[in-house]
Every structure is written in structure tokens, then in C-alpha cells.
């Protein structure tokens, strides 16, 4: 109970930060818009999809998920900045829940992710993407993507605490995140890759969410007979939950050890 | 000793960082309702001790109780009873002063309304009402410290820890902070204060301890500490520097103690036991010798002298230990 109310207060703090320093809001929109336009038009013009359908429509659920992954960097550096601030000493000497600083970050980042998601969907619709299975499944797909974002948030929080230097965070996150998207079904269907690479891509947690979202949106590009491809929906739920189960307690533990 | 009369108790606390020993058997007993000064040079272990007592830092050995609760096994209860104002203002730099105080009030379980009301009171009391809606990051050093102290008082703590609270403050802000501390103690709060400024401890503290290299080397009232380095001192300034050796001889003969000569200030000083008798004797002897004196006084030793003497003595003892 206290963990919830304190987390809520800390989420409020993070959102007030955004209101007081609104230039950061621009970032909420630029990355999603840029990703949709760059990938949608650069790749979307020339590539083909297994089966039929437009590549752009194939690509966009992948871009949604990729944007969520890259949000990890913002989370990690926000936590690293916080951990380096003197105010953390006050938080740590207050009788508040130990998890609150972190869950407050996770809460504020979920709000941010909702704004990003809205931007992504609007941009997607403008470039010709659409959902074909009705609003219910489309919302379910969005929920899966946001679930992955929550998992990425906790990974980012853990990361920000382990590398408590905001500059280092920025340098490390991109080289880690980029191969993770390339080795998934975001840009290319795993069936079109060499076998071993395709297997890696199929098991990639991002691929599960992307495949499940494509299915629910009714976008092209499903298929593949691999076990993970056939169980995309289950994996799209299980992977993020597993990541949260590992990263969240580890993050709280390393927060407790700060300054010791 | 968990009774109500001891607010902070440290018993043989040890803390090592790798090979460095920060605290080496640190002992402390702060009576409730008093101001206790922890004095020591940089790196003596003052901040480490405060961070341990405020649950921010784990320690390797020993026992610590604050407000009756064990620091190691019951940190949440300790946190509920204390506040810490550190060397660096621990406030949120993006939020406004008011938002800071409301947030800390809410985190201390005040209702939204009470937290807002309390924030207004504190802003007013610390002269921050005008700046209340500006980001704390734009505050001057003195304002930030005041906000930091206000944040510590949102719910008046039973024990307030002040870690070098006036380092880098201008004299006016410093006096304001001292007044606030005195008011708090009048309301029943126990204050543990670390400082490098002996004047500060002398002004505020009922008792002080001096720590050096992680261990208490002296403890008592400020008066008691001053007494430990001996008696009052006679200090005189001669008009002509060439008279210094003769003046020193006169002083040494009258006091029976070694005199210290500062050529630059043309000053001779020496400890005295019987103030008035010595003063009279010295003045008469100087007059006889035809030495012109610009200034002469008998004074209590400053805490600075006590401090240097105590920490210096400790350093010497260590050097001997290493050599043998």
C-alpha cells in the first residue's frame, strides 16, 4: 500500500519535472515521428513481405516496438541522473517505500509511453498503416506493446543504477539496442534469414511482441512454423513479465545499495 | 541504553571502505533535547558517522541506536524519527521550493491539504515565499540551504542531523540557521551537528566531541575542552619588534611557562595560571625594562587551540606507533 502511494507521489514528481522543463516533451514526439517516416519510407518503398501486403504495413508494428525499446535509454539516463543527485539522500533517509523512486519512474515513463504510442499510431495512419481486425484487437496489440515498454522500463532502471553516469548510459544503450532490433522480425521476417540467424530472431523477445501485434492489427507478415512464431501471443505476455520479475527486484536491491 | 534520555548512541562503530578505515571504534552518546557538536578536520569521519546514523550507510561492526531504535535492524523507525540536512542541499532542483516541501510532506504521510499548509508556513518562516514558485535550482546557495533545512522540518523530527550545515554560507544566512536550530531545540528536538567551525560548536553545542581518523579523541562541554588544553592565556603585542626577545623573557619569568612568539604580529603569548597576579607582574616588569606595549590581554583559549592540540597530539601518537 505504502509502496503504491509513495510510487504515485514519485511519479507525480517526475511528471512535474516534465511540466517545469517542457522542452523534453518535444523528444516524446520526435523519435516516434522520425522512426515512422525514416523506416516507413526508406525501407518501406523497396522491400517485400512474405505472402502479400505492403512492407510499410508489415514494418509499422515493428517500429512501434522499436520505439518502446529505445525508450529504455531515456529511462536509464533519467534514473542515473536522479541517483547522482543529492536529493536521493533525502529520499533514502525518509520513511518511504524503498521502491518508490523506481516505481515512480516506471509510472511516469508509462504515461510517456502512452503519449508516444498515440503519436506512433497517428503517424502510422498518415503513412497508410491501418488496423484491420477491429478496435478491440488493436487495443490489445497496443496493450502488449506497452507491456513490453514496462519491461524495458525496469531493465532501463536497473541499467541506470548499475551505470550511474548519465553520459555512459547514452553511449551504451544504442549499440545494445540496435542489434537487438536488427536480430528480430522488426525489419525482416525470420524465415528470410539464414537458419541460425532466423532462430535467434524468432526467439528474440521483441519478435514475440511484434508478431502478436501484427496478428492482432491484422497486418501482413505472420507465419513461419517455428515454435515461438506459433506461440507469439503467449510469449508476448510471458517475456515482458519474466523480464520484469528479474529486473524489478534487482533494481530495488541495487537502489538500496546505492552509496554503501 | 535505550531510555528516553539518550537520543543518539553509537558504540564502537567501525566502517571500512576497502583498505581505508573511515570509522575505527566510534563512540557517541547524545542526551535528548541537547545540541551535540561533532568536530573534526576534513576526512576525520564526520560525514561517514552521520550517514551511518541516518541509515544511509551500512557499517561493519558496533551498535547504533537513534531515538531508541536500532539503526541496523529497524531503519524504517529510525527514518521516521529523524531528518538529515547534509553538506549538499538535498532538494529537487527542478521542482519549485513549494513543490519540494509539499512532496516531502506527502512522503511523510501528511494529507495533501496539511502538506500544502505546512509548506506555506515553512516558506514564510525561512523567507522563501517570494521565491516559492521558482525552481530550487535557481536559488542562491543560502536560499537552497534554507529550503533544505525547511524540508527537514516539514514534520519536526525527534533527532535532526546537520552535516556541516553552514559550510559556504554567508554570515547572515549562518546566523539565521543558528537561530532556527536554537528554536528547534527549544521545542524539544535533539540536534547532532558536524562542523569544522569551532565557533559554530561553541555557539550552539551543549556538548562536543572531537574526532580524528575515525575515532573520538576528546569529549565534553566546550568549556571542558578548552580547559583541557590548560589555563587562560596571556597575550601581548609590543610596539617595536626588536623588543620581542626581551618581552618573551619577561613573560616566561612571570608565568613560569614557555612563551610563543609571533614575529609578524609582534605578539608574545603564554599560558597563565593566576590571571591577575601574572598580569600585574608582567606589566610592571615590562615597564621596568622600558618595553612599550601596544596591547595586552588575558583570554580563555579558543576552541581552535583545543582542536589543534587534540588532533595534533593524536597524530603524534600515531607517528610514534608507526615508528616502533
TrEMBL record, chain A:
It is a multi-pass membrane protein. One of its GO terms (molecular function) is ABC-type transporter activity. One of its GO terms (biological process) is response to antibiotic. InterPro entries: ABC2_TM, ABC2_TM_bact-type, ABC_2_transport, Nod_factor_ABC_transporter. Keywords: Antibiotic resistance, Cell membrane, Membrane, Transmembrane, Transmembrane helix, Transport. It is found in: Cell membrane; Membrane. The chain crosses the membrane at residues 25-43, 63-88, 109-131, 137-162, 169-188, 232-252. GO terms for cellular component: ATP-binding cassette (ABC) transporter complex. Residues 23-258 form the ABC transmembrane type-2 domain. Belongs to the ABC-2 integral membrane protein family. This is Transport permease protein.
UniProtKB/TrEMBL annotation, chain B:
Keywords: Antibiotic resistance, ATP-binding, Cell membrane, Membrane, Nucleotide-binding, Translocase, Transport. It is found in: Cell membrane. Pfam families: ABC_tran. Its main location: membrane. SUPFAM superfamilies: P-loop containing nucleoside triphosphate hydrolases. One of its GO terms (molecular function) is ATP binding. It is a peripheral membrane protein. Belongs to the ABC transporter superfamily. Drug exporter-1 (DrugE1) (TC 3.A.1.105) family. PROSITE patterns: ABC_TRANSPORTER_1 (PS00211), ABC_TRANSPORTER_2 (PS50893). Residues 8-238 form the ABC transporter domain. It comes from the Bacteria. GO terms for cellular component: plasma membrane. InterPro entries: AAA+_ATPase, ABC_transporter-like_ATP-bd, ABC_transporter-like_CS, ABC_transporter_ATP-binding, DrrA, P-loop_NTPase. This is ABC-2 type transport system ATP-binding protein. It comes from Micromonospora tulbaghiae. GO terms for biological process: daunorubicin transport; doxorubicin transport; response to antibiotic.
Amino acid at each position: 500500500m505504502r509502496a503504491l502511494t509513495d510510487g504515485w507521489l514519485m511519479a507525480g514528481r517526475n511528471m512535474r519535472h516534465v511540466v517545469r522543463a517542457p522542452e523534453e516533451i518535444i523528444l516524446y514526439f520526435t523519435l516516434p515521428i522520425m522512426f515512422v517516416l525514416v523506416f516507413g519510407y526508406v525501407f518501406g518503398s523497396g522491400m517485400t513481405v512474405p505472402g502479400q501486403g505492403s512492407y510499410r504495413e508489415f514494418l509499422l508494428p515493428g517500429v512501434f516496438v522499436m520505439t518502446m525499446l529505445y525508450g529504455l535509454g531515456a529511462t536509464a539516463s533519467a534514473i542515473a541522473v536522479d541517483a547522482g543527485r543529492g536529493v536521493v539522500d533525502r529520499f533514502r533517509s525518509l520513511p518511504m517505500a524503498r521502491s518508490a523512486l523506481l516505481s515512480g519512474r516506471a509510472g511516469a515513463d508509462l504515461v510517456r509511453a502512452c503519449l508516444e504510442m498515440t503519436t506512433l499510431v497517428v503517424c502510422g495512419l498518415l503513412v497508410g498503416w491501418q488496423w484491420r481486425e477491429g478496435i478491440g484487437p488493436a487495443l490489445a496489440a497496443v496493450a502488449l506493446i506497452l507491456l513490453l515498454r514496462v519491461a524495458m522500463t525496469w531493465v532501463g532502471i536497473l541499467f541506470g543504477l548499475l551505470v550511474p553516469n548519465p553520459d555512459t548510459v547514452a553511449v551504451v544503450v544504442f549499440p545494445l539496442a540496435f542489434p537487438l532490433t536488427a536480430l528480430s522480425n522488426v525489419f525482416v521476417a525470420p524465415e528470410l534469414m539464414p537458419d541460425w540467424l532466423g532462430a535467434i530472431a524468432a526467439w528474440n523477445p521483441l519478435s514475440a511482441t511484434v508478431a502478436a501485434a501484427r496478428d492482432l492489427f491484422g497486418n501482413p507478415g505472420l507465419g513461419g512454423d517455428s515454435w515461438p512464431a506459433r506461440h507469439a501471443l503467449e510469449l508476448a505476455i510471458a517475456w515482458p513479465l519474466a523480464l520484469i520479475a528479474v529486473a524489478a527486484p534487482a533494481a530495488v536491491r541495487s537502489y538500496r545499495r546505492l552509496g554503501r | 541504553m535505550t531510555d528516553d534520555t539518550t537520543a543518539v548512541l553509537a558504540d564502537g562503530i567501525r566502517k571500512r571502505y576497502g583498505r581505508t578505515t573511515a570509522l575505527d571504534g566510534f563512540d557517541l552518546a547524545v542526551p535528548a533535547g541537547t545540541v551535540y557538536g561533532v568536530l573534526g578536520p576534513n576526512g576525520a569521519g564526520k560525514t561517514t558517522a552521520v550517514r551511518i546514523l541516518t541509515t544511509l550507510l551500512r557499517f561493519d561492526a558496533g551498535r547504533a541506536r537513534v531515538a531508541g531504535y536500532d539503526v541496523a535492524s529497524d531503519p524504517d523507525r529510525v527514518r521516521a524519527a529523524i531528518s538529515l540536512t547534509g553538506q549538499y542541499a538535498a532538494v529537487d532542483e527542478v521542482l519549485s521550493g513549494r513543490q519540494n516541501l509539499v512532496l516531502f510532506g506527502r512522503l511523510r504521510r501528511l494529507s495533501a491539504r496539511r502538506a500544502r499548509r505546512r509548506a506555506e508556513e515553512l516558506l514564510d518562516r525561512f523567507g522563501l515565499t517570494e521565491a516559492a514558485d521558482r525552481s530550487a535550482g535557481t536559488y542562491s546557495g543560502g536560499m537552497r540551504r534554507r529550503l533544505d533545512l525547511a524540508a527537514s522540518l516539514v514534520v519536526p523530527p525527534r533527532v535532526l542531523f546537520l552535516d556541516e550545515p553552514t559550510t559556504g554560507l554567508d554570515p547572515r544566512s549562518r546566523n539565521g540557521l543558528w537561530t532556527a536550530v536554537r528554536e528547534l531545540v527549544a521545542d524539544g528536538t535533539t540536534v547532532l551537528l558536524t562542523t569544522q567551525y569551532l565557533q559554530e560548536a561553541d555557539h550552539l553545542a551543549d556538548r562536543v566531541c572531537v574526532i580524528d581518523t575515525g575515532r573520538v579523541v576528546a569529549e565534553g562541554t566546550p568549556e571542558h575542552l578548552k580547559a583541557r588544553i590548560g589555563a587562560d592565556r596571556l597575550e601581548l603585542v609590543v610596539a617595536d619588534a626588536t623588543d620581542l626577545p626581551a618581552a618573551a623573557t619577561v613573560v616566561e619569568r612571570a608565568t613560569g611557562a614557555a612563551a610563543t612568539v609571533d614575529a609578524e604580529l609582534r605578539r608574545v603569548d603564554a599560558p597563565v595560571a593566576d590571571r591577575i597576579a601574572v598580569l600585574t607582574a608582567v606589566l610592571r616588569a615590562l615597564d621596568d625594562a622600558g618595553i612599550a606595549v601596544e596591547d595586552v590581554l588575558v583570554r580563555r583559549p579558543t576552541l581552535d587551540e583545543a582542536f589543534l592540540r587534540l588532533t595534533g597530539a593524536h597524530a603524534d601518537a600515531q607517528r610514534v606507533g608507526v615508528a616502533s
